[in-house]
Amino acid sequence: MQPSEIIAVKVLPAIRAQLALTLLKDYDMRQIEVAKRLGITQAAVSHYNTRDKTLDRELLQTFPEIEDRVKSLAARIAQGLSKTEQMAAIEELCRELTKTERFCAYHRRYSSIDSQCQICIPVKA
Question: Residue 30, Cα to own-chain centre: how many angstroms?
Answer without folding.
Answer: 21
